[in-house]
Design a protein that fits this description.
This protein is an alpha/beta fold and 400 residues long. It has 15 helices and 13 strands. Bound molecules: pyridoxal-5'-phosphate.
Length: 400
């Protein structure tokens, strides 16, 4: 049976490893070494471009994890980084130069907004932010010097869904590189390469690792672009440690089952919140009445484990509610097996201006949940008791 016929659950366990290999260790060994011995200088020259020269250039443990992710994303190749932000910054620095321009969607991770709006201008690279699902605005923002179209879907934290085919077509028409942060979706729920997107980025810290015990980043996509980014990774030194790569690989083996459970749990929680009188608004693309539900269901096989909601009350009500939860731990981050709660104005989007947050619809009342793999009824009971701490009540929540 050819490998490419395998489904995502199988790919998550087997990666791109050679299935006919015999007598090797089942688990990938950790090559916990910074350097590799060579027999002579000629061999050293040949080794320079391999993953057995110097770990800043590459490492065999990392290669196995990179191959597994490339397989899951239907991509030519993938690269690991020390963090999601390292993947984003190293890739963008590799792809654009002084005088060039980026078009980026407004609803993206706060750290990325900061990099694009506060750091890249120092290097003479300007970014125009456009409304995420206003595609005419994207087209109007493109200039002769535009090089990159940067997107995220579903978005953090309001879970907007981007029409991937439409955006990739626009990028191709204008000869732009398209790059997506697909962290929330995971390759189980969405494979942007299949919609024509050139580069797919993940904070591997989240679902791919899956246990809130490592920091990592990934870029997968077109081989020529991956080669260019690899050179930058070597120069900037944003590589991942092989021990963390081992943990990431172990996490990936259970990715499909974790994400399937998180899809189910998050949908149950979203439906509960959408019917609760102390909730003003719920953001989850697979919930009934969500304006982008049809698009979401066309491009994603599940809504993912993250959802957000606005408490019908004050910012203080939102804080009290987050602190009153027992099963949702108050902590930044998402994507692990444990359920987490956070308030975006205090965490993921604390580093950007109130004006930028307002344009993204991020209010003080907004609470983000990362739903884990616990029992959904237990999670709902926990939310039910915590919602009693808020002061007001209404009939129905708005969705999306
Ligand atoms: C959607 C998204 N992209 C990127 C990042 C950055 O990833 P990291 O924290 O691994 O650098 C995060 C972190 O929260 C995120 O949520």
């Amino acid at each position: 049976m050819k490998k490419h016929q395998h489904r995502q659950e199988t790919k998550a366990v087997h990666g791109r490893a050679d299935l006919s290999k015999k007598n090797g260790p089942l688990a990938t060994p950790i090559y916990q070494t910074s350097t590799f011995e060579v027999t002579d200088n000629d061999q050293q020259l040949r080794a320079t471009h391999t993953d057995m020269f110097y770990t800043r250039y590459g490492n065999p443990t990392n290669t196995v994890a990179e191959a597994a992710i490339a397989e899951l994303e239907s991509a030519d190749a993938a690269l690991l980084f020390a963090s999601g932000m390292a993947a984003i910054t190293t890739s963008i620095l590799a792809l654009v130069k002084t005088g060039e321009h980026i078009v980026a969607q407004r609803d993206i991770y706060g750290g990325t907004t900061k990099f694009l709006s506060q750091w890249l201008p120092k290097l003479g690279v300007e970014t125009t932010f456009v409304d995420t699902v206003e595609y005419e605005q994207h087209a109007r923002a493109i200039r002769p010097n535009t090089k990159l179209l940067y997107l995220e879907s579903p978005t953090n934290p309001t879970l907007k869904v981007v029409d991937l085919r439409r955006v990739s077509t626009l990028a191709k028409q204008h000869n732009l590189i398209s790059m997506i942060d697909s962290t929330f979706a995971t390759p189980i729920n969405q494979r942007p390469v299949e919609f024509g997107i050139d580069l797919v980025m993940h904070s591997g810290t989240k679902y791919l690792g899956g246990h809130s015990d490592l920091i990592s980043g990934i870029i997968a996509g077109r081989r020529d672009l991956i080669q260019t980014i690899h050179e930058s990774r070597t120069t900037l030194g944003s590589c991942m440690d092989p021990h963390a790569a081992f943990l990431l690989l172990r996490g990936i083996k259970t990715l499909a089952v974790r994400v399937q459970r998180q899809n189910e749990n998050a949908l149950r929680v979203a439906e509960f919140l959408a019917g609760h009188r102390r909730v003003r608004r719920v953001y989850y693309p697979f919930v009934e009445r969500h304006p982008q539900r049809t698009l979401a269901m066309e491009q994603m096989s599940g809504g993912g484990g993250v959802l957000s909601f606005e408490v019908d009350g004050s910012g203080d009500d939102a804080r009290h509610l987050a602190e009153a939860l027992h099963l949702f731990t108050l902590a930044p981050s998402l994507g692990g097996v444990d359920s987490l709660v956070s308030i975006p104005v205090l965490t993921s989007h604390a580093m950007i201006s109130p004006e930028q947050r307002q344009k993204m619809g991020i209010t003080e009342q907004l609470i983000r949940l990362s739903v884990g793999i616990e029992n959904a009824d237990d999670l709902i009971s926990d939310l039910e008791q915590a919602l009693t701490v808020t002061s007001t009540a209404r009939q129905h929540a708005q969705v999306g």
